[in-house]
Amino acid sequence: MSIVWNPWHGCHKLSEGCLNCYVYRIDGKIERDPSKIILNSDCDLPVRRKKNGEWNIPSGETVYTCLSSDFFIEEADEWREQTWQYIRQRNDVDFVIITKRILRFGISLPDDWGGGYDNVTVGCTCENNKRAAERLPFFLKFPIKHRFIICEPMLEYVDFKRWLIPEKIEKVSVGGESGENARICDFEWVRQTAEDARSCGVGFEYHQTGARLKKDGKIYQIPRQLQASQARKAGLDT
After folding, report:
1. Predicted local confidence at residue 25, as pLDDT
2. 146-151 and 120-125: which strand pairing?
3. 193/186 Cα distance (integer angstroms)
4. Of 2, 55, 224, 231, which residue is the least packed, with the fewest Cβ within 10 Å?
5. CA distance 97 to 225
6. What does the angle CA 34 – CA 38 – CA 40 come to, to the nearest 5 degrees?
7. Looking at residues 208-224, what average pLDDT do you find?
8. To the nearest 10°, the Cα dihedral for 98, 104, 108, 114?
9. 168 burial via Cβ count (<10 Å: 0-12, 13-18, 19+)
10. Contact 23/69 with Cβ under 8 angstroms?
11. Helix, strand or coil for residue 207?
12. How far apart are CA 61 and CA 118, in angstroms?
């Protein structure tokens, strides 16, 4: 089981992977400006308790952090130190942080970070070869105990092999793009990436097909509610 915790909200369209991003699509429907970075009222959710004293987030949960923004976005620098304190206090909960701003990883790191917190997993997004080459050399050098690569939206076949070091990378997670303006994801890119991960001894996850999937020369339009289940049916996960 997992939950989502968004201490702040809002993002900027800074790369190819942001052109049809979740925040812009959802905020557009409710007439909210997604480019404004705001601190949410439940920013302290991990340390909140119920009336009976129990944690709102039970021990053992997996918490996906800041999915409606980016944990390392510049405008949140003043809030991040306190957020790290919540994460440190709840060392009985696993926090997953997915970021395209991995180059800002060292900003506002807690003093006791050392080689990383046991309960924090960091995922670095790379939607194409250009972003992989920019981000992954640094990602591998930063002090992080648990890390994975996430290629979503997958815009081309990305040759990750040089960075798939089992001692450093736990898995590669791949997904196509969702939304009305989704770009095509070719199943052959996904299949080849799964093969690359296996050959390097790294885990692989095909977490969603995206809205437009090309397979065997045909383009399939896949409804949002079926994208995860159709990806699992491909049988590529390890």
Report:
1. 47
2. parallel
3. 11
4. 2
5. 24
6. 115
7. 97
8. 80
9. middle
10. yes
11. strand
12. 14
**Which two three-digit tokens encode residue 199?**
């050959």
Q: Above 70 in pLDDT, residue 1? A: no
Per-residue pLDDT, 193: 98
Question: CA-CA distance, 84 to 219, in Å (whole number)?
Answer: 43
pTM for the model: 0.91
Number of C-alpha atoms within 13 angstroms, CB side, residue 125?
23
What is the average pLDDT across 157-185? 96
C-alpha span between 85 and 125 (Å, rounded): 25
Section 214-218 average pLDDT: 97
81 contact partners, CB below 8 Å, separation of at least 6: 108, 110
List Cα–Cα distances, 234 to 5, 69, 156, in angstroms. Answer: 30, 30, 19
The per-residue b/e assignment along 72-107, b for 16 or more CB within 10 angstroms, e otherwise, is: bbebbeebbeebbebbeebeebbbbbbbbbbebbee
Burial category of 223 from C-beta neighbours within 10 Å (exposed 0-12, middle 13-18, buried 19 and up): exposed
Q: What is the mean pLDDT of residues 48-76?
A: 96
**Containing H/E element for 190?**
helix 187-200
pLDDT of residue 24: 45
Percent of the chain with pLDDT over 70: 90
